C-alpha cells in the first residue's frame, strides 16, 4: 500500500511541476542583416525553438511591423517581401497575412509537429527604407528580435554587413536589451571591416528583446533625394495626396474663374475733378469703390448727415454722442434709412457697448440699403463661383476622414484652402462697366481732394478754399481715405480767417476738441476715433478676447514578435 501511495504522489508532483527542460522557448535567435548599396536590406533570421506541443503545435509565426508614424504624425511604410522560409534546412510552407500595422508570417501548414523536439526555422526577407540619414553619419536602428515574443529567448545575436569594406575605426555599434523602452546593457558587441556583431550575455524573458544601433560614414549607401522623400510621403499618406490634389484643383479653378469673371475692367482716363459724382453720398462711393461695407462707410455717412444739419456729433474724450436736429437738405440713397434707424429710440444715441444692438441694427439697415441700390449695378461679387470648390473641399475631407487618412500635413493642406477661398472671395469682386466709369470719376475727385495746397496752381480754376467747401467735402475725403490731406489743405485758410475775425473757426455740427491750425489732427480724430467708437459700440460686451544613448529596446525598425501556432 505504501508503495502504491509513493507512486501516485510522484505522478502528481510530475504533473504540477514542469521541468525547465520541457518549457517551450527559443534556444537561439540569430539575424544576418546585409545592407545593399541602394539602401535596401536582405535579412535572414534563424530561430531555433524547443517545441512541447503547447503553443508550438504546427509551427511558429513572425510578426513584422511595416507601418509607422514619423515625428510629424505622418504615415511611414517600409517594404517587406518574404524570399524564403525553411525548417531544419528544408523549404517550409508559409503564409503572409496583412495586419493593422504590418505583416504576420505563419511558418508551417496544418499538420502537427512531432513533439517534444527542437526545430530550426529560417526566414529570409527583403525590406527597405529602414536606414537613418544624418549630417555626419548614416545608421541602422534595428530591433533584432522584436519585443512581442511569447517565449523566452536564451540567446540572441545579429551581424550587420555593409555593401563595402569600411575601417573598423569608422564604425560604431551599441545595443539595448529588455522590454520596450528599456536601455539594458546585457550584450557584447564588436566591429570589423565593414560589419558589426552583437549578442546577448543573458537570456531574454518573454516580451523582452534585443535592439542594435549601427552607424557608419556617409556615402557608403545611397541616400534618397528630396524628390524621392516627397514621393514616399505622398504614397504613404493617401490623405495628404488627396488634400494636395484638392488644393491644386481649387487654385486652378479659382484662378480660371477669376480670369473669366473676376478681373476688373480697364480704367479710363483719370483727371482731377472738383466735384463728386452727382447723386451719390460719400458712403455710397466708398461702398462702390471697396465693393464692401466697413465702419468707415458708416462714419462717412454720419459725418455727411451732420454736415447737412440732421445731427450733431458730441465728443467727450473717447466717447461720442449723436443728437438729432432738423434739416431740409436732400438725402442720398441709404441716408434716410440710416437716419431713421439711428434715432428710432430717441433724439440722441451714445456710441457705447450698452447701445450695441441699436448701432448694429443701424449698420445692418444702412448696408442693406446700399446693397439694394448699388450692388450688381456697379459691382458684382461672383460669390457663386466659390460654391464648387467649397463643395469639393468638404467632400474630399470627408473621403480622407473615411479612409483614415487624416494626418497633420493633410489637415494643413485642407486648412490652406480657407485663406485661399477668402482671398478669391475678395478677388472675385469686380466692377461692372457702369461701375468702372463711375470709379474713374471718383478717382478724379480723389485726386483733387488729396492734392497739396501748393500744387493747386497746377490745376485749372480750382474752387476757392472756404469753410463751407471744407465741410461739404469732408465726408467724401473720409470715405476715400484722404481726410488728412484734405484737412491740411485748409490749415492756413482757417488760421488766416481767425486772424481776420478774431475767433477760431469751428464746425457747427461738431462739439469737442478742435484746433483750426491743426486740421490734420481734427480729421484724424473725427475719422479714426469716431470709427473706433462705432466699432466698439457695434459689438456686444465680451465678444473679443484678450545616436549616443538615445535609443532603447524595442525602438527603430524591424521588431514585432511572434509565437507558436
Automatic annotation (TrEMBL):
UniProt keyword Transmembrane, yes or no: yes
Residues that span the membrane, as ranges: 239-256, 385-403, 409-428
Keyword annotations of the record: Membrane, Signal, Transmembrane, Transmembrane helix
Record's keyword annotation contains Membrane: yes
Comp. bias regions, Low complexity: 533-542
Gly residues biased stretches: 543-565
Domain DUF2207 as annotated: residue spans: 25-216
Alphabetical list of Pfam families matching this protein: DUF2207, DUF2207_C
Domain of life of the source: Bacteria
Domain Predicted membrane protein YciQ-like C-terminal: 272-490
Region (Disordered): 533-565
Signal sequence extent: 1-22
Protein name, per record: DUF2207 domain-containing protein
Organism: Pseudohongiella acticola
Amino acid at each position: 500500500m505504501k508503495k502504491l501511495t509513493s507512486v501516485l504522489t510522484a505522478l502528481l508532483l510530475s504533473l504540477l511541476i514542469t521541468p525547465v527542460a520541457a518549457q517551450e522557448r527559443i534556444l537561439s535567435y540569430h539575424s544576418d542583416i546585409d545592407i545593399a548599396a541602394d539602401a535596401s536590406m536582405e535579412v535572414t533570421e534563424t530561430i531555433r525553438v524547443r517545441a512541447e506541443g503547447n503553443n508550438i503545435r504546427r509551427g511558429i509565426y513572425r510578426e513584422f511591423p511595416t507601418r509607422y508614424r514619423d515625428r510629424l504624425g505622418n504615415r511611414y511604410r517600409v517594404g517587406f517581401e518574404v524570399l524564403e522560409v525553411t525548417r531544419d534546412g528544408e523549404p517550409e510552407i508559409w503564409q503572409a497575412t496583412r495586419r493593422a500595422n504590418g505583416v504576420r508570417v505563419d511558418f508551417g501548414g496544418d499538420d502537427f509537429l512531432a513533439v517534444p523536439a527542437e526545430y530550426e526555422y529560417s526566414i529570409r526577407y527583403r525590406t527597405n527604407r529602414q536606414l537613418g540619414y544624418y549630417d555626419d553619419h548614416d545608421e541602422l536602428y534595428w530591433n533584432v528580435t522584436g519585443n512581442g515574443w511569447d517565449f523566452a529567448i536564451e540567446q540572441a545575436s545579429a551581424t550587420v554587413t555593409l555593401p563595402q569594406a569600411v575601417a573598423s575605426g569608422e564604425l560604431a555599434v551599441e545595443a539595448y536589451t529588455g522590454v520596450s523602452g528599456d536601455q539594458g546593457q546585457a550584450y557584447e558587441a564588436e566591429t570589423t571591416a565593414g560589419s558589426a556583431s552583437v549578442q546577448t550575455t543573458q537570456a531574454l524573458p518573454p516580451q523582452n528583446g534585443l535592439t542594435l544601433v549601427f552607424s557608419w560614414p556617409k556615402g557608403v549607401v545611397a541616400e534618397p533625394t528630396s524628390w524621392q522623400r516627397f514621393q514616399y510621403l505622398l504614397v504613404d499618406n493617401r490623405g495628404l495626396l488627396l488634400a494636395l490634389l484638392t488644393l491644386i484643383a481649387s487654385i486652378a479653378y479659382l484662378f480660371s474663374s477669376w480670369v473669366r469673371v473676376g478681373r476688373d475692367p480697364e480704367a479710363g482716363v483719370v483727371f482731377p475733378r472738383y466735384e463728386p459724382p452727382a447723386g451719390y453720398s460719400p458712403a455710397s462711393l466708398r461702398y462702390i469703390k471697396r465693393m464692401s461695407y466697413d465702419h468707415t462707410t458708416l462714419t462717412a455717412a454720419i459725418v455727411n448727415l451732420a454736415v447737412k444739419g440732421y445731427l450733431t456729433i458730441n465728443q467727450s474724450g473717447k466717447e461720442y454722442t449723436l443728437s438729432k436736429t432738423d434739416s431740409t437738405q436732400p438725402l442720398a440713397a441709404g441716408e434716410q434709412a440710416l437716419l431713421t434707424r439711428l434715432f428710432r429710440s430717441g433724439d440722441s444715441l451714445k456710441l457705447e457697448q450698452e447701445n450695441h444692438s441699436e448701432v448694429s441694427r443701424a449698420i445692418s439697415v444702412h448696408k442693406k440699403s446700399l446693397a439694394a441700390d448699388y450692388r450688381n449695378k456697379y459691382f458684382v461679387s461672383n460669390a457663386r463661383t466659390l460654391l464648387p470648390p467649397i463643395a469639393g473641399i468638404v467632400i474630399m475631407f470627408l473621403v480622407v476622414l473615411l479612409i483614415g487618412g487624416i494626418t497633420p500635413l493633410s489637415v494643413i493642406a485642407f486648412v490652406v484652402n480657407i485663406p485661399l477661398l477668402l482671398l478669391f472671395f475678395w478677388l472675385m469682386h469686380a466692377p461692372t462697366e457702369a461701375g468702372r466709369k463711375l470709379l474713374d470719376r471718383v478717382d478724379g475727385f480723389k485726386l483733387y481732394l488729396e492734392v497739396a495746397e501748393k500744387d493747386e496752381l497746377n490745376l485749372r480754376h480750382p474752387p476757392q478754399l472756404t469753410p463751407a467747401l471744407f465741410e461739404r467735402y469732408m465726408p467724401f475725403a473720409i470715405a476715400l481715405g484722404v481726410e488728412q490731406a484734405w484737412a491740411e489743405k485748409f490749415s492756413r485758410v482757417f488760421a488766416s480767417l481767425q486772424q481776420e475775425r478774431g475767433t477760431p473757426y469751428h464746425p457747427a455740427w461738431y462739439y469737442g476738441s478742435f484746433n483750426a491750425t491743426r486740421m490734420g489732427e481734427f480729421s484724424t480724430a473725427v475719422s479714426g476715433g469716431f470709427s473706433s467708437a462705432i466699432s466698439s459700440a457695434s459689438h456686444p460686451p465680451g465678444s473679443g478676447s484678450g545616436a549616443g544613448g538615445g535609443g532603447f529596446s524595442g525602438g527603430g525598425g524591424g521588431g514585432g514578435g511572434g509565437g507558436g501556432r
